[in-house]
Amino acid sequence: MKHIICTALLVLCSLLASAQWLEITDVSISSTTTEQGGPVYAISYVLQGDDLSVDHPAYVFIRYSVDKGNSWHLVDKDFITGEGIGIIERPGKKEMLLWGSGETGIENPEICVRGIQMARVPAGRFIMRSFPAGGKDPSKTERPDTNLPEFYMAINETTISMYADFLNETGKSGGGWNDRMSNEMRCGIIRTGDMGDYTYSVIEGRDNYPVSYVSWYDAIHFLQWCGLTLPTEAMFEKAFVGGLYLGGDATESTPNEMPERKFPWGNEDPGQGGIFRCNFTGEEDGYAGLAPVGTFSTFSSPYGINDLAGNVSEWTRDWYTTMYHIGLDGFRMVRGGSWLADSFACDAISGATQFPIKESSIMGFRCAKLK
Amino acid sequence: MKSLNRRQFIGSLGAVGAFHMLSKKSARAAEEKIRVGIMGLGGRGRFLTERFVQRNDVEITYLCDVDNKRYAYGREIVAEYQDKQPRVTQDFRDMLNDPEVDVVVNATPVHWHALGTIMACQAGKDVYVEKPLSVNPWEGLKMVEAARKYKRVVQVGCQTRSAPYVQKAVDYIRNGNLGDIHIASVYQIVDWKNNIHSTQVEPVPDGLDYEIWCGPAPKLPYRPGHWFRDQWDFNVGSIGGDIFHQVDLTRFLLNVDFPKTATSTGGVFYFSDGREIPDTISTHFEYDKLICKIEAAIWAANFKKIPTAVRDSDQFPDWEFTSTKIELYGTKGFLRLGRQGGGWQAFNEHGDIVAQEYGRQADNIHIANFLDCVRSRALPNADVEEGRRSDLLLHLSNLSARIGNKKLEYNSEGNNILNVKEANQYLRRQDRAPWKIPEQV
């Protein structure tokens, strides 16, 4: 097949590692034409990160704009050939082709490539001690399946900086933001400009803190923007305590010595012995409010996932119905402790039911991906 | 100010009246903040916490829940509106002991409404207690006794009583616009088929003080979810817990109190999850030239409660399929009313709409009325005695069904059933020590 190299190099966006986006450099895109299928875009970038691995890969997604940045869209993985989108296990240069632009309308796109570091949670069984939906859903009388397929979960909670990037693409009319997010102690995203042309900035020093005051819907919209999802309660709890085999049931490698552990690191109380293992209520742990994500990474989960116990409680995908009160239908579950939770409430089974529209200083979320 | 420690208190539970010495307050000055303790941090408790803390004249000083993992979700609400964080406890007696609590908001499960309120009154606290009021008629009587003895303001959480649109309906009816009203129909026709209770016994979750949670009710094996809601010793049931609003409004609209008789037909027709309290019931209360009817089912397709958007706007609900409506049949007209902001419409004998009012939800007005009364010491809109009388109708409705759908003649003077002696055993529960409701409050 004959390819004609297009000389025009299109507008690109690469991201240095900051505020929990992985460092991605040298992004390029160039077009060629084909005899029958219209133009093809060759995309390349360099993914940095010496610590990327099979167990801690990157999740990379690409967003594009064909109207000079007025609107952005997620590149569909089905139109990509080559390594460079989705789960990426090794750093280095990535090259791929974006096919089908003649049909999809992706012509002369600007692109933006972003990556998030994930942890792999191998397939297999785990011991789920919490009740489904907090034991509050009368229609859920059975425990969820505790033999989960492989999935990935972000090593860190979604940060203020990441969320601000999302807002700057999608929030020109104000959606996804509320004025409490401008609280410099509990979140830190400022909105400026006029309706239809809002822009968002992060208060200095707050980039790396977990985003808060996000409703369940805000979280879902962010995740759809990335091509990811929320974890279920079962996924959250497995990530928290580990499977029966940390290497997965298929390999039966690395038996989990504490499959019913209370906390991600074991059974020691978060403040036991004057050692602070997560961000819970009070200032003793060094933080009266939120802490930057990963601050307590020494005490991560068996899969190396940070802050599952404290900092912000996290939205999950699970919900339960109650017809008992109007307007209360469709509660969503949040799991894990927070900066206002007592240390004992940062354990593996703690959680709460919340309205999906609730925006709270103690609630955030993290990304997950099914394999 | 003297206070008891917890051990001393448990030892003296047989005489919980000891608490009355703790606090004697007169009307509070307008500039003083009213200090509120929240008892119960479930969904309703958190809702009320947010409503109270938003007021400039309130400070939340205590949060209490038997599940100590709920504190963060209460703290978070408070932190949005006040700098000073409240104290927290699993044991509400700590809160009652605290002189920095003027008011207790009792948002516990129903089996704790009575004793929690009585002990709060004894401790000198005013009380905002959620509906329904009690598990049995005797509890309601003791709540009223405690409120009166200790001169406490006790408001029941039937907030629609405070809604201006309801007061207009009261005026409309009492001005004789409907003529003589001989029939009132109160509906609770909902589709809660998904609310199947889990009957599986589970270990008590970490962090839950199950001893206190059970309180005066039997300490049965733990079951997650709302299984206890439909057990006689714990509640008035899924129907009673919700229809309380309509029953109370009907009494308010018609200015009636104790019925001469109550006759039910009902039972557990749909569910098979071990519930004791009927899921289907029809009750006739007989008054002087008035029949007040309850029609209630919790499995009925098609019917829906009034949507929130309707409650807070100039709209009327789809009356035909509205779950929670009241219909009044008069010799000159007909009126239907929706609770919690549903509004009302009155029709003349030709079927024309001759009067109507859109509604709004009245939680904030109801809370404001309560706090006003805390300052003035006046009786609130939903004084505990009014709540007690509305609650009694639920008990009689259930009781008739419980003993085989028999007609009951209730004697309000003696709190007893005159014509069916076997029914009297259910007017009071055997409380579990040490959480007994005292004979002498």
Question: Overview of this structure, please?
Answer:
The complex is a heterodimer of chains A (371) and B (441). Chain A has 371 residues and is mainly β. Chain A folds into three domains: 2-119, Immunoglobulin-like (Sandwich); 122-159 and 208-371, Alpha-Beta Complex (paralog of FGE (formylglycine-generating enzyme)), CATH 3.90.1580.10; 160-207, no CATH class. Helices cover 9% and strands 27% of the residues of chain A. Chain A has helices at 101-104, 160-170, 216-226, 233-241; strands at 4-9, 12-13, 24-33, 39-47, 58-65, 73-74, 80-82, 86-88, 92-98, 110-121, 124-125, 147-148, 151-154, 189-192, 199-202, 313-320, 331-335, 351-354, 363-364, 368-370. In chain A, the strands form five sheets. In chain A, strands 2, 5, 6, 8, 10, 13 and 20 form a seven-stranded mixed β-sheet that branches. A five-stranded antiparallel β-sheet of chain A has the order 1-3-4-9-7, with no helix packed on it. In chain A, strand 3 (24-33) and strand 4 (39-47) form a beta hairpin. Chain B is α/β, with parallel strands linked by helices. Chain B is 29% helix and 20% strand. Chain B has twelve helices and 16 strands. Chain B has a ten-stranded mixed β-sheet. Chain B has a six-stranded parallel β-sheet with strand order 3-2-1-4-5-6, sandwiched between helices. In chain B, helix 2 packs parallel to helix 3 (71-79), helix 5 packs parallel to helix 6 (137-149) and helix 6 packs antiparallel against helix 12. The longest helix of chain B is centred in the last third of the chain and has 19 residues, at 384-402. Chain B is globular and about 60 Å long.
